[in-house]
Specification:
This protein is an alpha+beta fold. The protein has 13 helices and 36 strands. The strands form 9 sheets. Strands 18-17-19-20-26-25-24-22 form an 8-stranded mixed sheet, with helices on both faces. Strands 7-6-3-8-9-34-35 form a 7-stranded mixed sheet, sandwiched between helices. A 4-stranded antiparallel sheet has the order 13-12-15-16, with no helix packed on it.
């Protein structure tokens, strides 16, 4: 049975008439010439005219056949092996109705789910009396109306009438697997869906065995939709006085571009931007929220005007603003020593020593560390000379897993260097973290040398792109640790020394971040701390890392977890957007509390309360895959192994029978090439002879 994937290409078959048309348009008109020996001319050309006419016909046929083969090749034809569909009145059937969020889109004013529900009910009505059937609502988890096949079709009709579309994604494999289990190897599965390519593209029908599958698309046309697919906060947890950037991604699942309004609303702010989104493309738009107040600020982004699928036109977020970051500078140098490297690092973080820069820095000696200081600090700097006790290294490894930013300074000293402290922390992680570089011997330069930018200015060095090409050229580094960056961390090196040793390495590390500064911070070993580059480098590295981490996304219908900034012992309650309580379980409690929550049905903001205090929100948004409403092509649903019979229908008319298809377009390309080659060979070998030439012999 032939199947054409791109039937519109068949319009090109009209081009097969072009060679004939060109032949008749360019054929020379006969000219009447009077010669005395006219009878002799007729005798000379009588047999040749028939041969020339045959040559012309053969050439025209070859050219027409070549064009037909090319057009058919572009239409991508397949040949399906024959087979008969099972009768419509099958005795055992499981109906799968797609109830994912994309089925809530309207077409012609009617939601796709309503159409699917109606078509499924019609199918059940056509089953003969005594048939056993089941209905599965396919979403993130398949939900059967009845637990097993039943002859009570009235109950299935009632369940279909009460079924509603969800805000969830769909797991087609899980629904098909459940249907196959219910059929126990015999019967058919009938699927009513919009066949989103993002959900159905990876379905493997070969796992269903001999069970027949009927695919019935709800609509033959794709729904034109635009939706918000992602929101990023930079930084993810700003501090008071710091500008927060909200980056929004929008996808347009339509064959033409669109102009949309993007509206942001949060506490005390309402902003609007216009964005142009191309056909089947994504665009980004950014909002800047200047100096948000301390606290938890819920917000939402929405698209205007609304379209056929309004559920993905709104996306929520939460902006948590802390009063300041707590930084802890750990070193063995005396706390009263104002010219030590630790003192310069603390002053770079907190120039006025009052926290007004957004960071409050404290110094501590490694041997006299207060555990509470380590637990509350969001930024910890290890500055030589430094010898870490084992329990401190273990605690730092745990804090890295919790999400702190760890600054490590190396200055090339033999003992008490930062790389040794970092190795202790890595070792205490019990394999959870890897050393980002392989340190070697100390390198000394009497005159000093400047570090070089690795590649183009990027990451934390973007702020320096407006300066000279080598803004770090004035620096003079007299001692550093020679080393080689591990291959897995090569992209994290932003500054290097002349011998390719890393000078600045910045990367997410665990759930937190690592800044490895292989440059001394003591005045006698470098002039780094005496330049404005030093505090700028520290703050830009910190901002870059704080802009990398994002909380895991939560989607309706899937289990999720939530981390709230609360370490008390009060009972924690979670409430849905509707106000209904949501069951939660505490997984870990410390400086923060981690909660495990069950799948929820609706997107929105889930308020978290400790006692009577609001301590945070959980954010549940629509799965971004639901915004891509483009359906998968029917041919892409064909089972490549051919073990499971899969039929694709449209308006009760079968479009394709699954099985291993024979791809015809390579053969058609070969045929076109053969026809053209024969045409050229015939033209070269069988030339039209000119009577005049014979007469001159």
């Amino acid at each position: 049975m032939p199947l054409v994937v791109y039937p519109l290409m068949l319009i090109g078959l009209l081009a097969a008439a072009l060679p004939v048309l060109i032949h008749f348009l360019t054929r020379p008109k006969p000219v009447a010439l009077r010669f005395p020996a006219f009878r002799l001319l007729l005798d000379a050309g009588g047999g040749r005219q028939a041969l020339d006419r045959l040559r012309t016909i053969i050439l025209l046929c070859l050219r027409c056949l070549a064009l037909i083969a090319l057009v058919l090749a572009f239409s991508w034809p397949l040949w399906q092996r024959g087979g008969q569909a099972a009768p419509e009145q099958s005795q055992r059937a499981v109906v799968i109705v797609d109830a994912s969020a994309s089925m809530g889109a309207t077409q012609g004013g009617i939601p796709l789910f309503t159409q699917a529900r109606s078509q499924a009910a019609d199918y059940l009505t056509r089953l003969e009396r005594g048939s056993s059937a089941a209905v599965i609502l396919a979403a993130a988890r398949p939900q059967p109306i009845l637990p097993a096949l039943s002859t009570n079709l009235a109950a299935l009709h009632e369940g279909l009438r009460e079924a509603t579309v969800t805000y969830e994604g769909v797991d087609p494999a899980a629904a098909l697997s459940l249907a196959a289990q219910m059929l126990e190897g015999s019967g058919r599965i009938v699927v009513f869906s919009d066949l989103q390519r993002s959900n159905w593209g990876a379905v493997d029908f070969s796992q269903l065995g001999s069970v027949q599958v009927d695919i019935r698309p709800v609509s033959s046309e794709a729904v034109e939709n635009a939706g918000i697919t992602h929101i990023s906060l930079r930084p993810s947890h700003p501090v008071a006085g710091e500008t927060a950037t909200v980056e929004v991604s929008i996808f347009n699942a339509a064959p033409r571009g669109r102009e949309l309004s993007v509206v942001l609303e949060t506490s005390g702010a309402s902003l609007r931007r216009q964005v142009a989104v191309g056909a089947y493309a994504s665009s980004q738009v950014s909002f800047s929220i200047g100096q948000p107040a301390v606290g938890v600020h819920p917000g939402e982004i929405r698209l205007e005007p609304s379209d056929a699928m309004p559920s993905d036109d709104v996306r929520r977020f939460v902006l948590s603003v802390a009063p300041r970051l707590e930084a802890l500078v750990v070193s063995d140098s005396p706390l009263h020593e104002a010219a030590s490297g630790a003192a310069f690092v603390a002053r770079a973080f907190d120039p006025l020593s009052d926290g007004r820069s957004g960071i409050r820095a404290q110094r501590a000696q490694a041997q006299a560390l207060d555990r509470q200081q380590l637990e509350t600090a969001a930024v910890i700097a290890l500055v030589p000379p430094l010898h870490l006790p084992g329990e401190v290294a273990a605690l730092l490894a745990r804090r890295l897993a919790d999400g702190i930013v760890l600054f490590v300074v190396c200055d090339g000293r033999e003992r008490g260097d930062g790389h040794q402290a970092l190795a202790q922390v890595i070792g205490a992680s019990e394999g959870a973290l890897n050393l980002p570089w392989h340190p070697g011997e100390a390198q000394r330069h009497a005159e000093g040398q400047a570090p070089l930018i690795q590649g183009l200015p990027r990451g934390p060095l973007r702020a320096f792109t407006g300066l000279d090409e080598q803004p770090f050229a004035p620096l003079r580094i007299h001692r550093y640790r020679q080393g080689q960056t591990a291959s897995a961390h090569a992209e994290a090196t932003y500054l290097r020394h002349a011998d390719a040793s890393p000078a600045l390495l910045v990367e997410p590390f665990g759930r937190g971040g690592l800044v490895l500064m292989n440059m001394p911070v003591e005045p006698e070993l470098s002039n780094l701390v005496g330049t404005p580059l030093f505090p700028a480098l520290l703050h830009e590295s910190l901002l870059y890392l704080r802009s990398q981490g994002e909380a895991p996304q939560a989607f309706p219908g899937r289990s999720w977890s939530l981390l709230v900034d609360h370490g008390g012992t009060e009972d924690i309650r979670v409430r849905a957007p509707s106000g209904a309580p949501v069951e939660s379980q505490i997984l870990a409690r410390g400086r923060q509390t981690r909660l495990a929550l069950p799948p929820v049905a609706e997107p929105g903001l889930y308020a978290v309360q400790a006692g009577d205090e609001l301590v945070g929100y959980g954010v549940v948004n629509l799965d971004p895959r639901e915004s891509d409403t483009r359906p998968i092509a029917a041919v892409d649903l064909i089972d490549p192994d051919g073990e499971t019979p899969v039929f694709v229908y449209e308006d009760d008319r079968r479009l394709a029978l699954a099985g291993r298809p024979r791809v015809l377009w390579p053969w058609l390309w070969a045929l076109a090439a053969a026809f053209l080659a024969l045409e050229m060979l015939l033209t070269a070998c069988w030339r039209r002879r000119q009577p005049g030439r014979e007469g001159r012999r």
